Amino acid sequence: xxxxxxxxxxxxxxxxxxxxxxxxxxxxxxxxxxxxxxxxxxxxxxxxxxxxxxxxxxxxxxxxxxxxxxxxxxxxxxxxxxxxxxxxxxxxxxxxxxxxxxxxxxxxxxxxxxxxxxxxxxxxxxxxxxxxxxxxxxxxxxxxxxxxxxxxxxxxxxxxxxxxxxxxxxxxxxxxxxxxxxxxxxxxxxxxxxxxxxxxxxxxxxxxxxxxxxxxxxxxxxxxxxxxxxxxxxxxxxxxxxxxxxxxxxxxxxxxxxxxxxxxxxxxxxxxxxxxxxxxxxxxxxxxxxxxxxxxxxxxxxxxxxxxxxxxxxxxxxxxxxxxxxxxxxxxxxxxxxxxxxxxxxxxxxxxxxxxxxxxxxxxxxxxxxxxxxxxxxxxxxxxxx
Amino acid sequence: xxxxxxxxxxxxxxxxxxxxxxxxxxxxxxxxxxxxxxxxxxxxxxxxxxxxxxxxxxxxxxxxxxxxxxxxxxxxxxxxxxxxxxxxxxxxxxxxxxxxxxxxxxxxxxxxxxxxxxxxxxxxxxxxxxxxxxxxxxxxxxxxxxxxxxxxxxxxxxxxxxxxxxxxxxxxxxxxxxxxxxxxxxxxxxxxxxxxxxxxxxxxxxxxxxxxxxxxxxxxxxxxxxxxxxxxxxxxxxxxxxxxxxxxxxxxxxxxxxxxxxxxxxxxxxxxxxxxxxxxxxxxxxxxxxxxxxxxxxxxxxxxxxxxxxxxxxxxxxxxxxxxxxxxxxxxxxxxxxxxxxxxxxxxxxxxxxxxxxxxxxxxxxxxxxxxxxxxxxxxxxxxxxxxxxxxxxxxxxxxxxxxxxxxxxxxxxxxxxxxxxxxxxxxxxxxxxxxxxxxxxxxxxxxxxxxxxxxxxxxxxxxxxxxxxxxxxxxxxxxxxxxxxxxxxxxxxxxxxxxxxxxxxxxxxxxxxxxxxxxxxxxxxxxxxxxxxxxxxxxxxxxxxxxxxxxxxxxxxxxxxxxxxxxxxxxxxxxxxxxxxxxxxxxxxxxxxxxxxxxxxxxxxxxxxxxxxxxxxxxxxxxxxxxxxxxxxxxxxxxxxxxxxxxxxxxxxxxxxxxxxxxxxxxxxxxxxxxxxxxxxxxxxxxxxxxxxxxxxxxxxxxxxxxxxxxxxxxxxxxxxxxxxxxxxxxxxxxxxxxxxxxxxxxxxxxxxxxxxxxxxxxxxxxxxxxxxxxxxxxxxxxxxxxxxxxxxxxxxxxxxxxxxxxxxxxxxxxxxxxxxxxxxxxxxxxxxxxxxxxxxxxxxxxxxxxxxxxxxxxxxxxxxxxxxxxxxxxxxxxxxxxxxxxxxxxxxxxxxxxxxxxxxxxxxxxxxxxxxxxxxxxxxxxxxxxxxxxxxxxxxxxxxxxxxxxxxxxxxxxxxxxxxxxxxxxxxxxxxxxxxxxxxxxxxxxxxxxxxxxxxxxxxxxxxxxxxxxxxxxxxxxxxxxxxxxxxxxxxxxxxxxxxxxxxxxxxxxxxxxxxxxxxxxxxxxxxxxxxxxxxxxxxxxxxxxxxxxxxxxxxxxxxxxxxxxxxxxxxxxxx
Lengths: 386, 1122
Known about the structure:
The complex is a heterodimer.
Chain A (H helix, E strand, L loop, with lengths): L1 H10 L10 H5 L1 H4 L6 H10 L4 H10 L5 H5 L6 H16 L10 H8 L25 E4 L3 H7 L7 H14 L15 H5 L3 H17 L4 E4 L2 H14 L6 E4 H11 L2 E3 L5 E5 L2 H6 L4 H7 L6 E2 L22 H16 L4 E4 L2 H11 L5 H4 L2 E4 H8 E3 L3
Parallel strand pairs in A: 1-2, 2-3, 5-6, 5-7, 7-8
Antiparallel strand pairs in A: 4-9
Chain B lengths: L13 E4 L3 H12 L4 E4 L22 H13 L4 E4 L2 E9 L2 E8 L14 H5 L10 E3 L9 E3 L6 H5 L6 H9 L3 H11 L3 H7 L3 H5 L11 H15 L15 E5 L3 H12 L3 E5 L8 H4 L8 H13 L3 E3 L7 H6 L4 E4 L5 E2 L12 E3 H9 L9 E5 L3 H12 L4 E5 L11 H9 L3 E3 L2 E9 L2 E15 L5 E5 L5 E4 L2 E4 L3 E2 L2 H4 L26 E3 L2 H4 L4 H20 L37 H4 L12 H9 L12 H5 L13 E7 L2 E3 L16 E3 L9 H16 L21 E10 L8 H13 L3 E7 L5 H14 L1 E8 L14 H13 L7 E5 H5 L6 H19 L9 E3 L3 E5 L3 H12 L3 E10 L23 E14 L2 E8 L2 E7 L1 E4 L5 H4 L8 H7 L10 E3 L2 H6 L2 H16 L3 E3 L6 E2 L9 H5 L5 E5 L5 E5 L9 H5 L5 E2 L5 H15 L1
Parallel strand pairs in B: 1-2, 1-25, 2-3, 8-9, 8-11, 9-10, 11-23, 13-21, 14-15, 14-21, 15-16, 25-26, 27-28, 27-29, 29-30, 32-33, 32-37, 33-34, 37-38
Antiparallel strand pairs in B: 4-5, 5-24, 6-7, 12-22, 17-18, 18-19, 18-20, 31-39, 34-35, 35-36, 40-43, 41-42
Helix pairs in contact in B: 1-23, 1-33, 5-6, 5-9, 5-21, 6-9, 7-9, 9-21, 10-19, 14-15, 23-33, 24-28, 29-33
């Protein structure tokens, strides 16, 4: 095990750590008073590895939002380090970290690794959406049909994102194939250390795409995109699919000309998903598109772009009072921009922030409309001159 | 059920009389409001309904089970003295209230100790009879206590001079348990084989079976038992259990009295020596009774048994001077020399040769001397000696034997059976003749002159006195005359000289302690009484022995074991349809054969005969006192057949009568301070009775405020933080009934094998005080941080559910309340129920138990501290509505010292129109009280919780906020403030608790219209006052120990828990993070765990079945499926 840790430290450049503490100083969890410090974790894992309890606990605490790496002067790949440590610890000591919703979400993700699984996941497709039963371009729906049911109680409509994404694709004259036995991308399993089941999902999904004759997969969710574009190729030898982020596709089309937007008289602000802005370096894209909508007044939050603060939780583990505090602060930041519409680009951000908004006693000062970028764009986009 | 510990009886308490639901409700309200009560009921349990269950209009099948938790809680409540089988002996008014004397019948089965193991029932020989003496209370009563039906001692036992328990040995014989039956006989009679043959069995004379057909052949059954033993082994007396004593005692004479006295003295531990003048021991048994009636082998064997038990017998040792015995070192002497001197006829010619005394003649026969019998023999007399002598004469070759008796056949003292046998052997009997003169020739008898008699008036013996008929003399030729008209003690013959008085008949005078005039010398048997029966002499010997023992111990003798009762005999009634069944008689050898030898005439019962005959016994006294149950209950000690009734005297300021048939004097009901639940009741509807109970409790409370105790919650010292990795396993054997001994040992050993288990013990009973002591001491000594208790206890919680019972409850009271162990460190397995009544092999039992043990072992790792603590509340009561209900409630609470504020006329601030209702009758101010009164107000809202309510209202147009601890809605218009729509599904819950005034918010109470249809408004107010007092009088509420804890680090304050809780037990409080954290109001919480399941981030958990444990269970299950 020690050897393995040594190699992780090596690969993730932990030896370059100067112990300056900038990571801890910007860590959202630390800033809400949690006894957690990325700097100390790096220190311990290098020189005090016998303090296993500390290390183990800290490894599961991280939000993997990567804001620490953003500020690190030495290029320590902290999230990568956490991911690999979680895989290692899960393998040797079992899956840890307290799972939100009693682990139901992780359970269904693992259930999806069953090869014979029969899913009813396309009921939501309405007649106005133009999809193809065969073709070489697929739209990856991901977990939306599951979240939709699970989070109906807090009135989060994750399927709206899927519908609006298809509407956007249709606008671009693309009729994507929707694959009925597609599975979860496995993002949350990967980031909670369950490598085994994560890889199973990759193989199953890849086989499904190939069996359906798909050559390009369009993805709207930044987490799915990260998995399909970065991690699936590492699992699948000879991977030869084209993975496209819908945001990129739209940006490209808009830049080509020929499209315009209906005016929208709203004050908006944007919650950067950490996967999108920092890990995929796409923070400019949403702003580029949103600011093209006539009449809309866009305001940045105090922390935005690559410096944005996480929605409070990742991969549905370790959700707690600190998560709530991050969310409350984030919503207060959004409120203080004067915006009445909060746009985000990741269903997780939407779920987590909506949950926090629903606080029984703080509803009055936290509540604001929250929509996915795809939904906003789908509603406003129109042909140029049309 | 009965409470046996007398220490718990209070000097001053409210008296509650009668059982039933009304009484139960009274007890609940009084006890839970901190008032002590003595609860007296004649019935064996408190759920017996006055007037019977059929009088109740409503009887849902599950209702009794709904009362179960309440019943268990109350009967073990520290303020309740619950007395079943009890009645009021006297009750009279004095300056402090009612001075009451209660008598509780003896509790033969101690309710506080009985573990319900049922072993007593298993060993009871009468358990399959139509009236089993041991019964349980009916299944609907959670006490499930054992009752022992014990009556007066049966007539047979009372008639026996020795008090031998015939009923018990018949019961055991009927069950073919001969050895035990014989043991019962030997408790009171060391000579069963002898008595089984020669006893005159007065027991049979009084046998109630005789009222049906014929008396049971008790004596023959006893003989069978002795014979049965002799077939297998020599008779053996039970070993002497008492420690040896240094004193030596001499017994003079080895007849029935001497042998018996020696036997009982020996059992007391004394060194006993019998001195016998003759060559062989036995006294009159040997000298006066023919071998064909009492075979010498039997006699010798039973004497030998006495010798083997430790008594020394010196034969051929006449005692000349008693004083010499004392010089030889004896500290006491018992004179049992009997009455061997034949009485003389005192008629002319008596000195002629050929005239002999019967005893003299029988002695010669015994000594092998032929007394020269030939020709015609006349025997004078009608007793057993006469018959014995006559029958001996037949066997010795007499030509003809005639018995001459001066009265009628029916008046013969001889046993009729023997008379019959004698006649079968050819003996003739002349009745109503008396000898007048012996006519002799050459100094030898030739004829006897007799005179005919007629029967005159009854003499002092009750028999008619024979009177000679003048001139009826006649002469009867005789070769020999045997005189058998009685005997008397004879000094010179016995050779004893002593300094004590004797009367003209030679009988030694003794006082009631069997002491003669000479210190240390006692006398018993025929030497005291003159000739009497074998059993009578034995009884004398035994009583003398007790007196000697007392004399040597310097003690006064305690009264005999049972007192013969003069009272009505409360025996089991004889069933009218009992089939008649003839008495079994022993087979006899044919007369024409037996009359030529001295071999035994009667052949005894076969086993079948004995069992069938014993089954004829009516078992008059129900419990036969064979004491088999006491033996199996020895460790538990719950059964004691000798407990006495107890008398309890106390003062009660008020009396509540739930059943008027149970009070001695109906006039009591008219007195002030006496409440009758019946007064409040319009019908026999169960809910009416409950409310009536509450109403009478409410009224009674107002007069007893000074009796109220506060803070009865014991201060449990925190247990030291023992090491969680030191585990103890305790397996209850339930007095050996849990499983076969081998299986229990294997279960124990399996426990010991588990890692971390320091101690694994078998305990005889987990619910017994000593069992709990054993556990508690081991836990402390071994510093056990986890305990697994394998018994019938299902959970360690301070809580009774509908499947609880008294034993389970008691085990927890002992372990946690009395010994102060930490219940949160206990994991329990109800192995009892799991094994059930199924017929499992030992291997299956062990497999099952070890499986449960393993699971409990896993569970024990997930135990965490339970809530404990109290929440203080004040005594500010706000009553909304000056209706009769409100006024009555306010007045009664004010009398109890509560801080009452009353608003007479209430409206709703939102202007809801007022419905017309019976209870809304605002009344004028109450004078002379401390109640703060407000004439009118418009109520806007009530917020808060018990102990902290804030009522917003408008008084004279001004907005006010009033604080109170409890709010009572005595005005029906305000119900909407208490009962939000959608809460009606909880009705069953309230019903279950019998809390009729409850609203979803604990601390707000209301009166429903339907309640006012049951009782008057005033009574409803009293009931409401009782309800408020039970909540507030103790000034605290105990936390629900299962209430969840909230992890403030995790709680997101999302409020899902608040949404799901039906009891308003969760509220959100602001935290310093800018949002809220959930907090559980522990006294509102019922521990259902709904919020725990709802929490999205597992910030809530319950201590007993924690999330971690459930995860572990799920993981284990999944692992097994893989």
